Amino acid sequence: MKDCLLRVAENKQLGKDLFKMVLAGDVSAITAPGQFINIKLDGLFLRRPISVNDADGKTVTIIYKVVGKGTEMLCKMEPGQELMVLTGLGNGFDPGAAGDKPLLIGGGIGTAPMYMLAKQLLAMGKPVKVVMGFNGKDDVFYEEEFKALGCDVQVTTVDGSKGIKGFVTDALPEDSTYFYACGPEPMLKAVYKAAKMSGELSFEERMGCGFGACMGCSCKTLTGYKRICKDGPVMKKEEILWED
Amino acid sequence: MGRLSVNLCGIELDNPVIPASGTFGYGYEFAEIYDINCLGTFSFKGTTRDPRFGNPTPRIAECTGGLINAVGLQNPGVDKVIEEELPRLAKCFHKPVMANVSGFSVEDYVYTCEKLDKEPQVGWLEVNVSCPNVHGGGMSFGTNPESAAEVVKAVKAKTTKPVIIKLTPNVTDIVSIAKACEEAGADGISLINTILGMRINLKTKKPVIANTMGGFSGPAVFPVALRMVYQVAHAVKVPVIGIGGVSTAEDVLEMMMAGATAVEVGAANLVNPMACKDIVDSLPAAMDKYGIENLSELIGGTC
């Protein structure tokens, strides 16, 4: 974990309420895909946690949806402006567990952290299959970017306006060795039930500190109480305990 | 004795800055990013007789100038704290630590305090009769003078270390409760715990916090906390620890002028993990600015 002053290098709209921001500076604390950063914004008390889409040693990229005050402020930031950012938070995905045929599953904005994971798996010589689910075609993002990396991409939409009509669970391949999933909790639950192979799921929760101090985002697992921010956000399929 | 040092119930602190319970875990998250021995001490996560998961999530809500939390005393229980947390803490913190204790009955408080009292690392017992986030305990002991005094008396009878009682602001007359605790033998009083608060999500029309209400803290509560510290410090002779919205060295000076011997810093740690170190580092310059030679001379130094 490092608290660094990062400079906005880019902040552009990708779709309706959807933005991509590139922040430049010391991002050396980011060590794994699936980690997140926690951004301080003037006038708001708590920082805003957002997952890492990509990081290259000099910059970190985030993709975020405007859903409240914090992300509204974020989307108005101009290149050159600076932000205090806690970097390298959370455990992240374990690319080493992928096996021969990893499957990446993203739901909505949960697709964002799959990008850095896909890059790492491809660099390890693995063929990467991506299933990404959205409400409708206007919500789809990064399909081309994943294809450009060399991933086999399947889009699903709830309304059928693009790709397979339905949910990500309607498009899961049979022959994958391991899955990585990030998205809304109902999707994670459906993937957990549908997937025959082992895998990892990334959760979200309202956080206080984002680095394990306040116990604001705890959850119960089969291996004890975990803090989503510090022990997660990524949990192994085998340790997950659904409470309802 | 340095110019920042103060004496808290017979134990010398290098400075009066103490991270507040529940915002600092058992210390090691912070020890990863700075040497926490620069602190006066810290008050560790509220510990109970048995392990507790706490309340359902969401437990946190953003507010103007602070946050609401309803964690509900999540902790591994006193035995695990002694077996696992304290030995781990000993590797990164070499000063007496403040043990924060909660309970659901007088017997609970005594049981947990007695065990922690025997631990050489523990310098003070901070007895929390003010948690707003648990039912049938916590705050209910701190909302009237008799029950608060009963806890103090029972704990004092079975322990040897200084007992600091942590009070809730969610009462009509905090001074009468503080005085009752002093009479019952409390060696110090810390205040304030969080103020009971609430937020509603306009989109879902439901409370943001799963537990409906929670404790509000952060810079916004500082004036309320300062007023109560002033009132209590002028009514009791035992040392008072000022808590509530402290985020800067100037806030520390203000709390001490109101009568606090030491100061706990809570919500600020959650936003800036370096907050307490920053406050300690900036105290000498703030003292110079206001012509304060020694902090210990400042305590209660207002008309």
Task: Describe what you observe in this structure.
The complex is a heterodimer of chains A (244) and B (303). In chain A, the strands form 3 sheets. In chain A, strands 4-3-7-1-2-6-5 form a 7-stranded antiparallel beta sheet. In chain A, strand 14 (218-221) and strand 15 (224-227) form a beta hairpin. Chain A contains 4 helices and 16 strands. Chain A folds into 3 domains: 2-89, Translation factors (Elongation Factor Tu (Ef-tu), domain 3), CATH 2.40.30; 95-202, Rossmann fold, CATH 3.40.50.80; 203-244, Ribbon (Dihydroorotate dehydrogenase B (pyrk subunit), domain 3), CATH 2.10.240. The mean pLDDT of chain A is 96. With 244 residues, chain A is mainly beta. Helices cover 14% and strands 36% of the residues of chain A. Chain B has one domain: TIM Barrel (Alpha-Beta Barrel). Chain B is built from 9 helices and 15 strands. In chain B, a hairpin with a 2-residue loop joins strand 4 and strand 5 (66-69). Chain B is globular. In chain B, the strands form 4 sheets. Chain B has a 7-stranded parallel beta sheet. In chain B, strands 4-5-13-10 form a 4-stranded antiparallel beta sheet, with no helix packed on it. In chain B, strands 1-2 form a two-stranded antiparallel ribbon. By secondary structure, chain B is α/β, with parallel strands linked by helices. In chain B, helix 4 (145-158) runs parallel beside helix 5 (174-183) and helix 6 packs parallel to helix 7. Chain B has helices at 28-31, 78-90, 106-117, 145-158, 174-183, 222-233, 249-257, 267-271, 275-289, and strands at residues 6-8, 11-13, 17-19, 60-63, 66-69, 97-101, 122-128, 163-166, 188-191, 195-197, 200-201, 206-207, 214-217, 240-243, 262-265. The A-B interface holds A 1-3, 40, 44-47, 86, 205-209, 211-220, 225, 230 and B 22-25, 29-30, 32-33, 45, 53-54, 57-67, 69, 71, 74, 208, 218-219, 267, 269-274.
